[in-house]
Amino acid sequence: xxxxxxxxxxxxxVLSGAALTLALTLLVAGGVADQGWxxxxxxxxxxxxxxxxxxxIFPQGPLFALGVSNGLAVYICLYAVLGRAAFPLALxxxxxxxxxxxxxxxxxxxxxxxxxxxxxxxGLVPPDLAHLPRFARWLxxxxxxxxxxxxxxxxxxxxxxxxxxxLAAMAVISAISAAAVRDVVRLLIDIAAILQTVTARxxxxxxxxxxxxSIFALLGVVFGCFYRIADGLSxxxxxxxxxxxxxxxxxxxxxxxxVTLATVGxxxxxxxxxGVRLLAAIQMLVGQLLLLFGFAEIMRSSPAVLPDAAGPxxxxxxxxxxxVAGPVVAAVDQGSTVTPxxxxxxx
Length: 347
Prior knowledge:
Elements: H1 14-31, H2 37-57, H3 62-86, H4 94-112, H5 114-121, H6 131-151, H7 159-179, H8 181-233, E1 239-241, E2 244-246, H9 250-261, E3 269-271, H10 274-301, H11 311-314, H12 325-333
Antiparallel strand pairs: 1-2, 1-3
Helix pairs in contact: 1-2, 1-3, 2-3, 2-4, 3-8, 4-7, 6-7, 6-8, 8-9, 8-10
């Protein structure tokens, strides 16, 4: 009786990953709304379909989804900016079609190679760095298409000529995205692994970060009260706002306190009294000391070595003092209680 091969286990959090990608895409669609709400709605719709298709193939959780949404958001921004710069007179029907071509090509290539890519995404393929030069090569090819589009006088063509040139450029990029699908998916997996490591580090840094924010907020409120009380007790205004002496309310005082503590210096509110200037200088110095304190606490709380697969093994490593030490260490690592037998003369 032949045993069936084990099915690939798919991680959970598919809904959270889809919500994350949809939220980022919605944000980017609102950002490129100057291109017209029609383009934003179209970009959002195509992105939703692409994200849904990719989630059906790679339900890898929110970290993998963050890499997918990041790449899609960058593509939307580049298409909106470079498309208008290289093909300003392209017809309305050509822009959505040009935007759709690379996305549809990539999703279709993922679907056709889904078994191989799913095994890759599940971690059944040993990691390697060979895909990075290949990905850089595909990225260089894509950059060449953009340079040619911007460097040649395509923007002097009539609207129909620009539309055909736009579709030709996006067709080339579509072919590149279909050919580079394996390297792109591998890069997304690497990004998800790095984000997982960063998330593990942030778990150790939560307490010092919260402490730093709490002290920062406390100093901002305390000095804001100092500024407001000093200005209220003074016979003349102690601050200049937009070039005019102005009495400070608490909101303005709190704003000036936070800006001074962060040493940003917007310049919208300026101290006009020597005492207030001295108080602001003291707050700046305290802000610098707080920054050093926060950095020191974060570095002290950072784990020296993150737990990994080799962590438990290192606890059982012993120096190989004799030829018997190697098998003994191997037996201990395997959980065995085998004790080496001392050699007897004549054996």
